[in-house]
Specification:
177 residues; alpha+beta; SH3 type barrels; 5-stranded antiparallel β-sheet
Length: 177
């Protein structure tokens, strides 16, 4: 038995739309899950504008293990945040100090056997040695092989002063070595 399509007044086929029933909004919520890592490091509470600075600090482009980056995630404390998971990598104290400069509220989690073994809240040190480049082109650190040294004048927003030329720099002027 063949079915005939109904035609309207002008000879065009009528298309009948089915009513779509939607699930309640609670059921429509979705989560993005990033798989857990067996061993390595998870850096959490990174401001979204500092995400790729942390990637550069850790040289993750050349890391051979798993690297997961999630950015613009909701955060109760900082509004929007990023998380970086790095499989098979332990951070050095120098790397943690560099992260503290660009992401002062970050948390570093050490993972072993899928378990958080240690949780470290990064802290901006009072003295920053050989981490930041001085923005003064005539500073001795830019012209001689002298390691840089800065004093932290203010932590939020970050303001530092060069030990040698006494140039003050804000967060926007800071370049990580």
């Amino acid at each position: 038995m063949a079915r005939r399509k109904k035609k309207g007044r002008r000879g065009k086929e009528k298309i009948r739309a089915k009513k779509v029933i939607q699930a309640p909004k609670e059921e429509l919520k979705r989560e993005l899950k990033i798989s857990a890592i067996d061993e390595g490091t998870v850096i959490d509470h990174i401001p979204t504008d500092a995400t790729f600075k942390v990637v550069d600090i850790l040289d993750l482009e050349n890391h051979s293990g798993i690297v997961s980056i999630a950015t613009n995630l909701q955060s109760k404390t900082i509004g929007r945040k990023a998380i970086i998971k790095v499989g098979g990598k332990s951070l050095t104290q120098s790397e943690v100090n560099k992260i503290a400069i660009v992401a002062p509220d970050a948390t570093v989690n050490i993972i072993k056997n899928y378990d958080v073994r240690e949780k470290i809240k990064v802290k901006t040190p009072d003295i920053i040695d050989n981490v930041v480049k001085c923005s003064n082109p005539v500073c001795i650190t830019n012209n001689e092989q002298v390691p840089t040294k800065f004093y932290v004048l203010k932590k939020d927003p970050l303001k530092i002063k060069c030990h040698y030329c006494e140039r003050s720099m804000g967060k926007e002027d800071i370049e990580i070595i």
